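Researcher: Here's the sequence for the chain we discussed earlier.
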Amino acid sequence: DYVLFLFSKKFNSVPSFFLTFLQLTTERETAMTLVLGSQSQWRRSVLAEFGYTFETKVGDIDEYSVVVDDSTPRDESDPKLLTVKIANAKADEILNQIPSDQPSFLITSDQVVAYKGKIREKPADAEAAREYLRGYEHTPATTVTAVVITNTATGERFEGVDVAKQHFKKIPEEVMTAVIEEGDVFKCCGGFMIDNPLFHPYLGEREGDADSIMGLPMKLLERLLAEAGYKKPE
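Model: Thanks. This is the structure I predict for it:
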């Protein structure tokens, strides 16, 4: 508005070429696509529930090959550093799938569960899933979730980490069996999903937001999107 004021003072009106430039710039910003770089059904669900329209792309990376440093066992890594590094690696891979003439805001994310100084990722088998679930009766699951926003037009990245905790009551063995047979526990770090009705009677206090525990902390995401210059369509 201030620039328009200066032009009007100098030329007694705003030149048509400048109005056209502003219109094209605005249209370009509005046209930037929002891309969720994740195959997670929970992240897609959370983003859709918050009213966002987006495309989905998946990066083919070996997450378990990403380490913070070679001298530290992966499960003893700093969970914040590890998740940020994996989220950036996902962005690097997915950028190759986005055409240069399709400027986008790319969302990538990664999550692990921190438990007694160790990192818990997706359980490898049923026994690992049971071990995870039994342990939560005594020590809460701390989710550590990194979010990276990449402006594909400029290459700028904006990143942050959110931490939340989910306490549990004792989960009966038969409930563990049921959720393990369903199979979704093997898709989730820490081996649990707070949106599964079978878990609902055994959920205790929650420190943080449900969307953060589900893998996409929306307060953090929306702050990063704003920093990146994304404007949610009305």
